[in-house]
Design brief:
This is DeoR family transcriptional regulator. About 55% of the residues lie in helices and about 15% in strands. The protein has 3 helices and 3 strands; from the N terminus they run H-E-H-H-E-E. The longest helix has 20 residues, at about 5-20. About 15% of the residues are buried.
């Protein structure tokens, strides 16, 4: 796997874990926490949403779904 792909997957995993630990978070909170652009955060959230791992109950807010996830290192 390319290093850039590995970094992206690690970032997406970290974003998922952050949302899971904090309940509902805003896109802006994620931008501030991870120090990346709103566009990058949105792309990562789209990946998570496409895989039914997060949902947006209202515009700009995110929470995890009930889908079971097996976390690996």
């Amino acid at each position: 796997m390319k290093p850039s792909t590995n970094r992206m997957l690690n970032r997406i995993k970290s974003i998922y874990m952050f949302i899971n630990n904090h309940g509902t978070v805003t896109t802006q909170e994620l931008v501030e926490e991870f120090g990346i652009t709103p566009r990058t955060i949105q792309r990562d959230l789209n990946v998570l949403a496409h895989n039914d791992l997060v949902k947006s109950p209202s515009r700009g807010k995110w929470t995890t779904t009930q889908k079971k996830v097996k976390m690996t290192s």
